[in-house]
Please model this.
Amino acid sequence: MLPLIAGNWKMHLLREDAIRLVSALRAQATSLACELLVCPPATVLADVAAHLAGSPIMVGGQDCHQAPFGPHTGDISAPMLRDAGASWVILGHSERRSDHHESDALVCAKAKAALAAGLKPVVCVGETQAEREAGQAERIVSIQLAHSLPDGFSGAVAYEPVWAIGSGRTPTETEIAGMHSLIREALQARFGAAGATIRILYGGSVKPENAESLLAIPEVSGALVGGASLKAESFLAIARAVPSNH
Ligand code: PGA
Model:
């Protein structure tokens, strides 16, 4: 399974800049040792998907509702994302968990809805600075993992320490390796052989300068990239840093 480099555009880019970015990605994303995924805001998702039609670059949403349709003003369902051209969806990002008080149970319901609609979820987990300082990082991530993933889960898990997101700070390679092997063990214990096919992405201040060393860490099967995914050069530089023997 090739590593996955996923771009989380968050609440950035109007249509013109979004199309300029994916046109550059489409033109320059050649002979990569990874798969590429872009997750634009819902307003430009269908346009982005149309521009990427026929290219290997995949498109994902940044969240979905747990119901397929219904009276939920402002929300977007998994079948709607699929209909707009998405094949993936990010769920349980720490910004959703904090801005919208999303619980593990809600993230789990959303992941179930995504799978039912034929979308592959990227479920995010990660500890806060205070939790890490209290020596609770492993415990928190284990709890989030146990309660955010539905039975029969497939797709990807992203380990994103909350304090590393947008901060320019990252855990040490040893810390990342330790957390990723803990996640791998939990996935295999719960899902058996299928647990080995779930990618574990690292996210939080991934940039061209640190991508090579982060992507070389055992059990890091890709990256979830925020800020550096908004420019074609930096996103592609990260994709090119994937070791070819992964
Ligand atoms: P960052 O964001 O790369 O800007 O730190 C990562 C994320 O929030 O997914």
About this structure: The chain has ten helices and eight strands. Strands lie at 4-8, 35-39, 58-61, 88-91, 120-125, 156-159, 199-203, 222-225. Residues 66 and 110 are 4 Å apart (CA to CA).
